[in-house]
Amino acid sequence: MVSLIALKSGAGLAIRGGTPSRGQKVKDLFVLNLHPNLTVRFSFSVSLGAGFSGTRTAAVMQRALFSRSAQLAQQAAAALDSPLAGRSAPLLQRLDRSMSSVTIPPPACMLKPLEAPLRYLFGPGPSNVPPRVLAAGGRPIIGHLHPEMYEIMNDIKKGIQYAFQTENNMTISMSGSGHAAMECAVFNTVEPGESVLVAINGIWGERVAEIAERMGANVHRMVKSPGGYFSNKEIEQAVEKHKPVLFFLTHGESSAGLCHPVDGIGDICRKHNCLFLVDTVASLGAAPIFMDKQNIDILYTGSQKALNAPPGTAPISFNERACHKMFNRKTKPVSYLFDMTHLSNYWGCDGEPARLYHHTGPVSGFFALRESLAILAEKGLEESWRKHKEVAAYLYRGLEDLGLKLFVPERDLRLPSVTTIAIPEGYNWRELLTYIMKHHQMEMTGGLGPSIGMVMRIGLMGYNCEKTNADMALHALADALKTCKKSKA
Ligand code: PMP
């Protein structure tokens, strides 16, 4: 038998009976004696607007009721009796607004439940997140400095080493999106006044150039229009000319849908004593990259594309050359949060026995990232690359069958995760995309930065990388092409 105690006498809240008024002491004691395994159908409401119902065993009910009513009792006691009543301001306001010390009322939107629609995220990211990764992110929080969290971070490090194909010890995840990794790479390896060379063939090179300029680097740009790419000869000539400490290249240019060749560039950089930094935010898991074999000194990615974790974490890795440069600086990096001397300790990469507090890592984000890296490890990189290529090829055929033109003519240079379509003549791309969102609940996007007005983009990555999804995207596009054209006529 268990006693179902809803509330103790005098705690300040009526479980049965009416709404308590200010100053009222409630004497009710509510006890039910039930067998713990007895299933009880209940509908139970307490005053102050709280209520719950359902079917539970008595033991579960006891726990739920007791903790809920204890919580409500505390709130009510604080609101009604406590000299510190201001602490329970929202509740107090509901009870007696004239006593409120706050002048800004609770916003009406915050008193409504969260609403987030279900959408097919077939744009350049974020991509839909598999239930398994969502579930991992929804697990109860543990402390960011608990030994179990360190173990999870160690697992993440191994998962990233696999995904990047590197043995680099200095491999971590940023607490932040792809931009955090971008800034971390530049802030730590470049000092003010040093020369940086950036390849720009879409938005991401320009973004890195701006980041480097902001921290005082002497930035040199090599520029091609979206969809363009650089030969190794062009790169070597620019490296010889500008003598940069860092050369930046985007592997998967998501704004243009181009996957840039990487072979040989690391060797050029090595020869000229320059670090090679590569962005794989949009390409990791979708197109082959081999950090160690390709002599890439710094590599980063994002969580929300082919990895299929929620946005907000960003794996990054530095090799020995990069570590040598960043740990032998004359000046401190401009950012405390992104300072690798601290982050390397937090991630257990600096050989120190103790991992110290630096910032509070995104615990749920790391759970989800670990799960997404686990899925990639189970599936295998080669299988993931193969699948992205196969589904992309299927999509290309379907798009061409619709009479559409792919933006990147060279098939081998197309980014398998994000396909760019030249905007079909006579159509307003915004109208097409708005129609697809409205009638198919599907996100596809236009261009970004220099590719705006040039392309529409379809991303099928990771979990979304399936022929059935390609079919859905093609069907939605066909419908939009038919309907939007008609509406224009
Ligand atoms: N690089 C590339 C190639 C990207 O596609 C993106 C995101 N679209 C970023 C960097 C920036 O990542 P985030 O939005 O996660 O900061």
UniProtKB/TrEMBL annotation:
<dbReference type="InterPro" id="IPR000192">
    <property type="entry name" value="Aminotrans_V_dom"/>
</dbReference>
<comment type="similarity">
    <text>Belongs to the class-V pyridoxal-phosphate-dependent aminotransferase family.</text>
</comment>
<protein>
    <recommendedName>
        <fullName>Alanine--glyoxylate aminotransferase</fullName>
        <ecNumber>2.6.1.44</ecNumber>
        <ecNumber>2.6.1.51</ecNumber>
    </recommendedName>
</protein>
<dbReference type="InterPro" id="IPR015422">
    <property type="entry name" value="PyrdxlP-dep_Trfase_small"/>
</dbReference>
<dbReference type="GO" id="GO:0019265">
    <property type="term" value="P:glycine biosynthetic process, by transamination of glyoxylate"/>
</dbReference>
<dbReference type="GO" id="GO:0004760">
    <property type="term" value="F:L-serine-pyruvate transaminase activity"/>
</dbReference>
<keyword id="KW-0663">Pyridoxal phosphate</keyword>
<keyword id="KW-0808">Transferase</keyword>
<keyword id="KW-0032">Aminotransferase</keyword>
<dbReference type="Pfam" id="PF00266">
    <property type="entry name" value="Aminotran_5"/>
</dbReference>
<dbReference type="InterPro" id="IPR015421">
    <property type="entry name" value="PyrdxlP-dep_Trfase_major"/>
</dbReference>
<feature type="domain" description="Aminotransferase class V">
    <location>
        <begin position="120"/>
        <end position="466"/>
    </location>
</feature>
<dbReference type="GO" id="GO:0071391">
    <property type="term" value="P:cellular response to estrogen stimulus"/>
</dbReference>
<dbReference type="InterPro" id="IPR020578">
    <property type="entry name" value="Aminotrans_V_PyrdxlP_BS"/>
</dbReference>
<dbReference type="GO" id="GO:0005777">
    <property type="term" value="C:peroxisome"/>
</dbReference>
<dbReference type="GO" id="GO:0008453">
    <property type="term" value="F:alanine-glyoxylate transaminase activity"/>
</dbReference>
<dbReference type="InterPro" id="IPR015424">
    <property type="entry name" value="PyrdxlP-dep_Trfase"/>
</dbReference>
